[in-house]
Amino acid sequence: MSLDGTVALARRRYADGHPRSRDVADRARTVLPGGNTRSVLHFDPFPFRVERAYGCELHDIDGHRYVDLLGNYTAGLLGHDPAPVYDAVRDALDGGWSLGSVHNDEVRLAELLVERFDTIERVRFTNSGTEANLMALAVATHHTRRRKIVVFANGYHGGVLTFGESASPVTVPHDWHVCRYNDVDDVTAAFRDRGTEIAAVLVEPMQGSGGCIVGDPAFLRTLRALCDTNGSLLVFDEVMTSRFSRGGAQHLLGIRPDLTTLGKYLAGGFSFGAFGGRADVMAHFDPAAGGVLGHAGTFNNNVVSMSAGVAALGDVLTDDILDATHARGDDLRTAIGESFTRNGIPMCVTGAGSLMNVHGTPGPVASADDLVGADDRLKELFFFHCLDGGYYLARRGFIALSIEVSDAHVAGFLEVVDRFRIDD
Fold it and tell me: Is residue 2 classed as helix, strand or coil in its secondary structure?
């Protein structure tokens, strides 16, 4: 059977096994454009509908159980029902919500973040990583009195800050200069030509949504040096990579950004974002220090996210747990790659720690250029194969382990991976 035929068969098998999800998908399309309100959750022919979740398990309305290896695209690091977070949120709600006032948990959460990240001297909260990046760029352009922002091809910093193969029509209209990721010569040339105009460099230490492409430490150190020489700010988007250690990827790399953006799991799975860094830069939001920038957001300090974040950082995410999850991910990524090689599967896997992505190419992959010509059909077959085996990952091949994923879960998944064949 041709590869196209094999993909079509996998879709039919999936659809036949999820009749109730198909019915709800049909209903959803009559009121929700595309049948959803978060585009990344869609896959053809339709996504299954979750009925309940706990630990690292998902149960859909068609009676299927899945081990969740997606972790809500890194936001679900703590799993689906961590007891300390549940108890903290319940207690917070007992005191009322939608306060329209400051409260104690926002101070405690800020203190916990400043304690964890050496480079964050002051921090402010948002509702998402997207908002955090938007605010970081706002203060960077104000602080430097410059307009140009250096970003990198294949980078993703939120729904309105996307730099894929072509310009996104919803990306905000900053004065962007797009360089190639992991290309020292390209970004050096940009600074040589326009250094006095560059307000900031916005970069992910590992391109997460772009396929878990790890930043070369020498490349990232070059960005720090270029910013120092030219008076620009280095902004690390650690919305995903902050899970790599207590102090994030920057701690492991030994690189100090001027600003850091955060989000995802840090509020225990509830909506969250934050940006922070040097005190002199963040002072632009402090009227008492002469700051003139405002920062609105009705739910920036909502009691649910603030209390959940305090519990997540104070009671759950110990250094030992983060380190163990990181190591488990490294072992899993290595084993997947070995399975592909052993079985003659023309695919590879990239990433670091608990975040990884399979690709429809033998690799290696160091930038988006290496993904040109990759066969997306291979990733789709792998996705449905894993789903049939009871393991859920992103359709695009993305995996984000939660702390609830055990060695036994990993061993079971690797058995499924080792059975994968292109001509199933």
Answer: coil
Tell whether 108 is covered by a domain: yes
What's the CATH code of the domain at 394? 3.90.1150.10
Q: Which domain holds residue 177?
A: 83-316
User: Are 392 and 355 in a shared domain?
Assistant: yes
Which residues lie across from 179 on neighbouring strands?
152
pTM: 0.96
Sign of CA dihedral 409, 415, 418, 419: negative
Of 14, 148, 181, 264, the active-site residue reads 264
pLDDT tens digit string along 74-131?
999 999 999 999 999 999 999 999 999 999 999 999 999 999 999 999 999 999 999 9
The yes-or-no answer on residue 237 being catalytic is yes
Task: Indicate whether 136 and 238 sit together in one domain.
Answer: yes
Q: What is the CATH number of the domain that holds 231?
A: 3.40.640.10
The answer, yes or no, to whether residue 164 has pLDDT greater than 90, is no
**Which of 105, 237, 258, 370 is the catalytic position?**
237
The alpha carbon dihedral of 167, 32, 97, 303 has a sign of negative
* Known catalytic residue at 44: no
Q: Is residue 113 domain-shared with residue 35, that is, in the same domain?
A: no
Q: Which of 14, 66, 156, 265 is catalytic?
A: 156
Domain check: are 72 and 100 in the same one? no
Asked if residue 84 has a cis previous peptide bond (ω within 30° of 0), the answer is no
CA 4 to chain centre: 31
Question: For this structure, is 156 an active site residue?
Answer: yes
Segment 415-424 mean pLDDT: 90
